[in-house]
Design a protein that fits this description.
Elements lengths: L14 H28 L6 H53 L1
């Protein structure tokens, strides 16, 4: 059974789905990485925790911006596609009414 809405491809094949899947994976793995870094920091192998915080914050910000940008592009393309479908349907209905009138 297809899970499309009549336009485009199934949801599991979209780039939004793939991006979301990677974001969920990252949200699972990042806490594990944080625990490892905390262990290294507590053991004295990492002396300056300030730079770890800066790198972590920058990485999280870039990931969030990348996801937001990708989602925005997808939604804009979807809106254009729906507008084209609506215009085509309107045109088809207009032609059908004209054919009935003649």
């Amino acid at each position: 059974m297809s899970d499309t809405n009549g336009v485009g491809k199934p949801g599991s094949e979209t780039s939004e789905y793939k991006t979301t899947k990677w974001a969920m994976l990252a949200s699972t793995l990042l806490p594990v990485a944080a625990m490892i870094l905390e262990g290294l920091s507590d053991s004295g192998m990492i002396q300056n925790k300030f730079w770890l915080a800066i790198i972590g914050g920058a990485t999280a910000t870039l990931a969030s911006l990348g996801y937001t940008f990708t989602r925005g592009k997808i939604k804009a393309a979807e809106s254009i596609a729906f507008a084209h479908v609506a215009a085509a349907r309107d045109q088809a209905e207009t032609h059908s009414k004209q054919d009935l009138d003649s």
